[in-house]
Batch of 2 targets.
Target 1
Amino acid sequence: MSLKKLPRSFYLRPTLTVARDLLGKLLIRRIDDEQLMGRIVEVEAYLGEKDAASHAYRGKTLRNEVMFREGGYLYVYFTYGMHYCCNVVTEEAGKGRAVLLRAVEPVEGIDTMRRFRKFRGKKKDDRELTNGPAKICQAFHIAREQNGTDLLSDEIFLVIDGSVIPRSMVLSSRRIGISEAIEHEWRFHVRGSPFASR
DNA sequence: TTGGTGATGTTT
DNA sequence: AACATCACCAAA
């Protein structure tokens, strides 16, 4: 099956649409001569100034600057003193909207992912490799230096491989770790995927 | 399998 | 003081 890099126009669409369409796409990370690949199974949309749970809610800052670029850039942030999470920026510049990658199914480079995740010698299932936003970043070696990476580059990018997730397989639910008062059903995941978080 | 807690540092 | 989290352990 041929792999086609997602074009800029994919990202320049309404954020909730992009979020749903990201399910089933492949995340590819190239480091030196190695390629890591995972299929996206869970995401969350963050709608900028309309969304009290979004980093962009109070406008542009040093931290969230990348969110205000045009779609197709990677926004990486540091949280809880030790973790990184990564987002795909959406829509046109100035909107501050993005989609958080929450879980992928490991496809290629699994040995390397286990090494990055420090699974060496531990009897852990591959499902625990990338079933959380900070786990993805650890497994794919995504950190501060990758903040602002253009997803049309060859370092980190997304591809479609022909397999499409039917609408009936996409479930929506409340986002994780967001207080009830400001929450919407903007988490999307592939029904029944054993690689989603819980 | 579930729930509680400590780790750890940036942002507001 | 809160935080878009994770790993570990104890309890059931």
Target 2
Amino acid sequence: VIDGVTRGVSTINGATLWRKYRRDAEIFGEGEPANSVYQVMSGAVRTVKLLPDGRRQVATFLLPGDIFGIERDVYQHTAEATMKSTIWVAGRSKLFAELPDVLELVTRNLEHAENHVLLLGRQNAIEKVTVFLIEMDRRLQSPNVLTLPMSRRDIADYLGLTHETVTRALAVLRRSGLLGINGKTGREIVLYHRRELTELAGATGALDLKLV
Amino acid sequence: VIDGVTRGVSTINGATLWRKYRRDAEIFGEGEPANSVYQVMSGAVRTVKLLPDGRRQVATFLLPGDIFGIERDVYQHTAEATMKSTIWVAGRSKLFAELPDVLELVTRNLEHAENHVLLLGRQNAIEKVTVFLIEMDRRLQSPNVLTLPMSRRDIADYLGLTHETVTRALAVLRRSGLLGINGKTGREIVLYHRRELTELAGATGALDLKLV
DNA sequence: CGCCCCTTTGAAGCATATCAAACCGCGTGG
DNA sequence: CCACGCGGTTTGATATGCTTCAAAGGGGCG
């Protein structure tokens, strides 16, 4: 174990196959040459950009099955584990044998980023948190029940909020009967009314909850 | 002229070569099949997403020379002229003969969107406006003097602000002696201190201007 | 030539941030 | 194994940055 990373080695050719990261361990850093691509086996990963004064923006969360680290030249973000995670690692070379697949992946990332721009630019705190929950619910593949693999602060930095505001928005949604917050650490969320939550996320004006 | 669009026709095979759009004319709409790709000849274009209640987010501005409309399946934004503009149009087919070039373009768009996410999520009004000016200054290729090809409202919707806040931020920068606002319509901006503006944009903490 | 839209500025309001404090669980080290 | 401490979550009170509402001047476009 070095720096929070455990390395697994293939018995066939000695190449590294997987690595285990503990919470907050760095997988790659912004500006490093993009020599490897990664896939989440278990746990979760955040990709982060920092401003010089420490302000922090999470661009994406990667969940089991997700591929990341495909970039033109150097990594544009720092990637860190949000919890104990196992990650597959591969050289980037073989990826570029299959250009159409890579294009597909990059395009999907672009669409995600463009939706993120709309979210950050024009949605309020409750809408942001709701969008986040609906997205996680879809991607975690366990309909209406989700165990969040990241902290309130990670969520806040993803949504351009503070961790207190994320907590307060969740409290509003709970008090409105739209979801339940369970578990000793408050990370188990049960969605009771998916329809209404989806409307909130889409800002259709059907409901209009307020923080205060 | 139909719907604010004038069509030019090739004398060779009858295919449309260019179109002229007046201010606010739609070039393509979100959700339409992405059958054509475009290049700005003159003028400027914004790509926009709308929320059901009318809130509006500008994703990008396209300036002369820029190519846009390359998408997987359907357009993810509506594209509109911000002023009288001339646009080249081509069928998408020939583009996909050159996959690496397309990948390059999509990747550049992705990097722009990721930077936009950081801007919207974690920078304040003055930083946002400064980032915008530095970006336009670079892309318009007329060092330190720029004629903005879009309204304050377009800028505001790009930066996740209101048009009043954009005006106020520009006034602060002008009163600080960092730039001049000229021309009868206030769209001619002269950057006096590029170094300081760049630092403001990067949030290095060197200067700290306030709106009020 | 006229009108509508754009820009600017001021005053008041509101959404979210900031500061503060308590509780709790988990991991760590003794 | 247990105690301790640190980080995470929650809630309250206050502060602030940006929005909202309002109004006036001016220019470009039809």
